[in-house]
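REVIEWER CHECKLIST
Item 1: Sequence provided? yes
Item 2: Single chain? yes
Item 3: Sequence as submitted:
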Amino acid sequence: MAKTKKFWAWKKNSPETKERTLVLNGVIAEDSWFGDEVTPAAFRDELYAEDGNIVVQICSPGGDCFAAAQIYSMLVDYPGKVTVRIDGLAASAASVIAMAGDEVQMYPTSLLMVHNPATMAAGDHNEMERAIAMLAEVKESIVNAYAAKTKLARAKISHLMEAESYLSAYKAVELGFADTILQREGAEDAEEADVSMLFSRRAVSNAIINKLTAVCGLAPGTENPEADEGNMETDEPPVPPEEARPQGRSVDMLMERLSLIKNHI
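Item 4: Structure as written out by the authors:
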């Protein structure tokens, strides 16, 4: 059997404290996790090979949510203290693993990202419905891990995931995803109000769309007083200048084309 590439590594910090560090860098389970039934067992064997407290050092964009779920469970059940330290990024599945820490530490430059689970599916509508149902259940399981750590309302967590949210270290602490921000020795703590930030990919996209539609005068529900005055004085609507005319086919034209296609099928 081919040797499976591990996505984790162990290192000892100090013989006196018996503390070990579990390093999770890169994609979680990039090669295999459940495929050969050896990888989960190997991880558990190495986890329990020694006792004592452990530090989980994470810098990962995420990966297999099922692998993350099992690692999360193993770390939660581990009898020693588990300290999670997010070095750079704990995104997607890696953020789930981070929730297993008795204490979650972040550096001021670290980020934590949460979003909806995703998959690839092919087939008829039955297969698509099964995929949707599966993703809904997976999301609920992820919300369970976030809620157990943060104590946030499930609706709030779901909203953060829908928006694909990137949390700064201070925002993560504010919302309960992290406990401690690691500072340089002698450095003063920054004011949370000034540095607590949350970036939402969906919010940014919506903001750009809203700005473009406002600039182009195409915002839904926006009335044009000058156009209304023109309609009152003549039966014909005012003709906009050439550069202001919308490009492409109108909705009515597209609906007409669609009706013709339906009638000829």
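Item 5: Key structural point noted by reviewer: The longest strand covers residues 82-91.
Item 6: Recommendation: ____
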